[in-house]
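User: My instructor asked us to take a sequence, write out its structure as tokens, and then describe one feature of it. I'm not sure where to start. Here is the sequence I was given:
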Amino acid sequence: MNRNSSFEESADEKEVFRDFNKEAPLIIQSNALPKECADQYALVYQSYNKWKEVHKSFLSVCEENNLIIYLQDLQNKMKPSSLWSMWSMLMKTLSANENIDLNKFVKLKNLLKNCSKGYRPKKSAVLKWQHIEEFMNRAPDHDYSSSTVSIVTYPANSAPGCQKMREQ
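Assistant: Let's start with the prediction itself. The structure tokens for your sequence are:
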């Protein structure tokens, strides 16, 4: 027997013990979520599962109804933009872990749209260049040294719109 045939036999033996039905979902789970914020996605998924555990005696057979109640409960604590983020993270994690497609849940999506009606996000205040210079020159160093350092260490011309700030 030559070496190649023994290699082929050992490769075939390994293939016999593989279970593609178990491997495929694991591959999907590990590659479905963005790597940078996978912890945040996992936290949202875990909080939904904890909520389900607490309310297990009331849960519906229909997952959409459960999600509607869950997001309705969160609506009292969160802004609509945060609810959309939660929905997006749940959509990815439920799809990867439980093969549930939230895009099919039309009532849930309509609820989120209705929650967002009339919502206006707050605009962040933007400092003009003259205000930054005034702060740098007038602020006492012993009180605002960390703020001054963070402004000073920001590389010149690297901020988006830095030139616009100087012109204003």
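For the description part of your assignment, you could build on this observation: Residues 161-168 have pLDDT under 50 and may be disordered. Try explaining in your own words what that tells you about the chain.
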